[in-house]
Design goal:
The radius of gyration is 13 Å and the shape is elongated. It has about 60 residues and is mainly α.
Length: about 60
């Protein structure tokens, strides 16, 4: 499934969300390993999507 995500800060905001998911997953690892794994998967999927975006031509 595809989704469109519109954020005012663009890819910078998405990168921040990815980082926050990874930090949250690390913090939750002991109490809820399944949730931590899900958050890591989400972060990986978002990171992969960022990598597929065209780069700005300068």
């Amino acid at each position: 499934m595809a989704a469109t995500l519109r954020l005012p800060g663009g890819t910078t905001d998405v990168a921040e969300i990815v980082e926050a998911l990874l930090v949250a997953a690390a913090a939750k690892e002991e109490q809820a390993p399944e949730l931590a794994l899900r958050w890591r998967w989400l972060a990986d999927d978002l990171g992969d999507a960022l990598d597929q975006l065209p780069t700005a031509q300068q």
